[in-house]
Task: structure prediction
Amino acid sequence: MDLEAFCEEYDLDYPDNPIKFEMRPATPKEAGLFYALPPEQDEELGTVGQVRIDFGRDGDEFRHTWWPRSPEGLNTPELQEELGQVVKQLRRGVLKDFSTMLRWCHLHGGEIAGGICTQNYGYVVETERYRYCLRCNPIRGDYQAYLSCFDLQEQEMRQAREPEPEARQDMTMGGIS
Result:
Protein backbone atom coordinates (compact mmCIF):
# COMPACT_ATOMS: atom_id res chain seq x y z
CA MET A 1 0.00 0.00 0.00
CA ASP A 2 1.39 3.41 -0.91
CA LEU A 3 0.99 6.62 1.10
CA GLU A 4 -1.91 7.89 -0.98
CA ALA A 5 -3.89 4.63 -0.52
CA PHE A 6 -3.10 4.61 3.22
CA CYS A 7 -4.37 8.17 3.64
CA GLU A 8 -7.51 7.35 1.68
CA GLU A 9 -8.22 4.18 3.68
CA TYR A 10 -7.84 5.95 7.04
CA ASP A 11 -9.52 9.19 5.90
CA LEU A 12 -6.35 11.26 6.30
CA ASP A 13 -5.25 14.26 4.27
CA TYR A 14 -2.72 13.28 1.63
CA PRO A 15 0.30 15.61 2.13
CA ASP A 16 1.70 17.71 -0.67
CA ASN A 17 4.85 16.29 -2.19
CA PRO A 18 7.75 18.27 -0.67
CA ILE A 19 9.92 17.28 -3.64
CA LYS A 20 9.47 20.01 -6.20
CA PHE A 21 12.57 19.29 -8.26
CA GLU A 22 13.33 15.81 -9.57
CA MET A 23 16.98 14.78 -9.59
CA ARG A 24 18.45 12.09 -11.80
CA PRO A 25 21.92 10.55 -12.08
CA ALA A 26 24.09 12.01 -14.81
CA THR A 27 24.79 10.10 -17.99
CA PRO A 28 28.39 9.44 -19.08
CA LYS A 29 27.93 11.96 -21.94
CA GLU A 30 27.15 14.70 -19.40
CA ALA A 31 30.31 14.17 -17.31
CA GLY A 32 32.05 17.28 -18.63
CA LEU A 33 29.25 19.56 -17.39
CA PHE A 34 30.36 18.91 -13.82
CA TYR A 35 33.87 20.33 -14.13
CA ALA A 36 35.38 23.73 -15.01
CA LEU A 37 35.10 24.43 -18.71
CA PRO A 38 36.97 26.79 -21.02
CA PRO A 39 35.23 30.20 -21.23
CA GLU A 40 34.00 29.61 -24.80
CA GLN A 41 32.24 26.37 -23.74
CA ASP A 42 30.77 28.08 -20.67
CA GLU A 43 29.40 30.75 -23.00
CA GLU A 44 27.99 28.22 -25.47
CA LEU A 45 26.33 26.20 -22.69
CA GLY A 46 24.80 29.24 -20.97
CA THR A 47 26.80 28.61 -17.81
CA VAL A 48 25.91 31.11 -15.10
CA GLY A 49 28.09 29.95 -12.21
CA GLN A 50 28.37 27.44 -9.44
CA VAL A 51 27.84 27.07 -5.74
CA ARG A 52 30.84 25.48 -4.06
CA ILE A 53 29.92 23.53 -0.92
CA ASP A 54 32.01 22.42 2.05
CA PHE A 55 30.59 20.46 4.99
CA GLY A 56 33.36 21.59 7.35
CA ARG A 57 35.74 19.57 9.49
CA ASP A 58 33.03 17.58 11.28
CA GLY A 59 30.93 17.07 8.16
CA ASP A 60 27.76 18.70 9.47
CA GLU A 61 28.23 22.35 8.48
CA PHE A 62 27.10 23.91 5.22
CA ARG A 63 29.60 26.47 3.96
CA HIS A 64 29.04 27.74 0.46
CA THR A 65 30.34 30.33 -1.95
CA TRP A 66 29.13 31.52 -5.34
CA TRP A 67 31.63 31.29 -8.19
CA PRO A 68 30.48 33.21 -11.30
CA ARG A 69 31.33 31.69 -14.68
CA SER A 70 29.60 34.23 -16.95
CA PRO A 71 28.74 37.91 -17.12
CA GLU A 72 26.62 38.78 -14.08
CA GLY A 73 23.68 39.58 -16.40
CA LEU A 74 22.78 35.87 -16.41
CA ASN A 75 22.65 35.79 -12.61
CA THR A 76 19.07 37.09 -12.51
CA PRO A 77 16.69 37.40 -9.55
CA GLU A 78 14.68 34.53 -11.11
CA LEU A 79 17.74 32.28 -11.08
CA GLN A 80 18.60 33.29 -7.52
CA GLU A 81 15.05 32.50 -6.37
CA GLU A 82 14.93 29.11 -8.05
CA LEU A 83 18.51 28.23 -7.05
CA GLY A 84 17.58 28.94 -3.43
CA GLN A 85 14.63 26.55 -3.71
CA VAL A 86 16.79 23.85 -5.33
CA VAL A 87 19.46 24.15 -2.63
CA LYS A 88 16.82 24.08 0.11
CA GLN A 89 15.43 20.83 -1.27
CA LEU A 90 18.90 19.30 -1.70
CA ARG A 91 19.71 20.24 1.92
CA ARG A 92 16.83 17.98 3.04
CA GLY A 93 18.39 15.07 1.15
CA VAL A 94 21.74 14.54 -0.54
CA LEU A 95 23.31 17.73 0.87
CA LYS A 96 22.10 17.32 4.47
CA ASP A 97 25.65 16.57 5.65
CA PHE A 98 28.79 14.75 4.54
CA SER A 99 27.69 11.30 5.77
CA THR A 100 24.30 11.60 4.08
CA MET A 101 25.94 12.68 0.82
CA LEU A 102 28.36 9.74 0.93
CA ARG A 103 25.51 7.26 1.52
CA TRP A 104 23.37 8.92 -1.17
CA CYS A 105 26.10 8.58 -3.76
CA HIS A 106 26.70 4.91 -3.03
CA LEU A 107 22.96 4.15 -3.21
CA HIS A 108 21.91 6.25 -6.22
CA GLY A 109 24.65 5.75 -8.81
CA GLY A 110 25.67 8.75 -10.88
CA GLU A 111 29.37 7.87 -11.15
CA ILE A 112 31.10 10.29 -13.49
CA ALA A 113 34.59 10.32 -14.92
CA GLY A 114 37.07 12.97 -13.92
CA GLY A 115 37.68 12.60 -10.20
CA ILE A 116 41.32 12.99 -9.25
CA CYS A 117 41.48 11.53 -5.71
CA THR A 118 38.16 9.73 -5.46
CA GLN A 119 35.11 8.73 -7.43
CA ASN A 120 32.88 11.72 -8.21
CA TYR A 121 29.11 11.50 -8.65
CA GLY A 122 26.88 13.68 -10.81
CA TYR A 123 23.18 14.45 -10.58
CA VAL A 124 21.02 16.69 -12.74
CA VAL A 125 17.97 18.78 -11.87
CA GLU A 126 16.24 20.34 -14.86
CA THR A 127 13.56 22.99 -14.70
CA GLU A 128 11.81 24.90 -17.45
CA ARG A 129 14.57 27.52 -17.63
CA TYR A 130 17.65 26.09 -15.89
CA ARG A 131 19.78 22.97 -15.57
CA TYR A 132 21.54 22.36 -12.26
CA CYS A 133 24.42 19.88 -12.20
CA LEU A 134 25.42 18.66 -8.75
CA ARG A 135 28.86 17.07 -8.50
CA CYS A 136 29.52 15.26 -5.26
CA ASN A 137 33.17 14.82 -4.32
CA PRO A 138 33.01 12.65 -1.18
CA ILE A 139 36.43 13.40 0.25
CA ARG A 140 37.26 15.49 3.28
CA GLY A 141 39.59 18.45 2.99
CA ASP A 142 38.24 19.80 -0.29
CA TYR A 143 34.93 21.18 -1.50
CA GLN A 144 32.57 18.23 -1.23
CA ALA A 145 30.01 19.45 -3.76
CA TYR A 146 29.64 21.84 -6.66
CA LEU A 147 26.25 22.90 -8.01
CA SER A 148 26.68 24.37 -11.51
CA CYS A 149 23.86 26.43 -13.03
CA PHE A 150 23.10 26.62 -16.75
CA ASP A 151 20.58 28.95 -18.40
CA LEU A 152 18.83 26.79 -21.01
CA GLN A 153 17.34 29.76 -22.88
CA GLU A 154 20.76 31.36 -23.20
CA GLN A 155 22.15 28.02 -24.39
CA GLU A 156 19.43 27.72 -27.07
CA MET A 157 20.07 31.26 -28.32
CA ARG A 158 23.83 30.67 -28.54
CA GLN A 159 23.44 27.35 -30.34
CA ALA A 160 20.98 28.88 -32.82
CA ARG A 161 23.73 31.31 -33.88
CA GLU A 162 26.37 28.57 -34.30
CA PRO A 163 27.50 26.87 -37.51
CA GLU A 164 26.14 23.45 -38.48
CA PRO A 165 26.79 20.62 -35.94
CA GLU A 166 29.49 18.92 -38.06
CA ALA A 167 31.56 22.12 -37.85
CA ARG A 168 31.39 22.19 -34.05
CA GLN A 169 34.07 20.71 -31.85
CA ASP A 170 33.21 17.42 -30.12
CA MET A 171 32.50 18.20 -26.47
CA THR A 172 32.11 14.75 -24.91
CA MET A 173 34.36 15.70 -22.00
CA GLY A 174 32.99 19.24 -22.25
CA GLY A 175 29.56 17.85 -21.48
CA ILE A 176 27.82 17.34 -24.79
CA SER A 177 28.52 15.32 -27.89
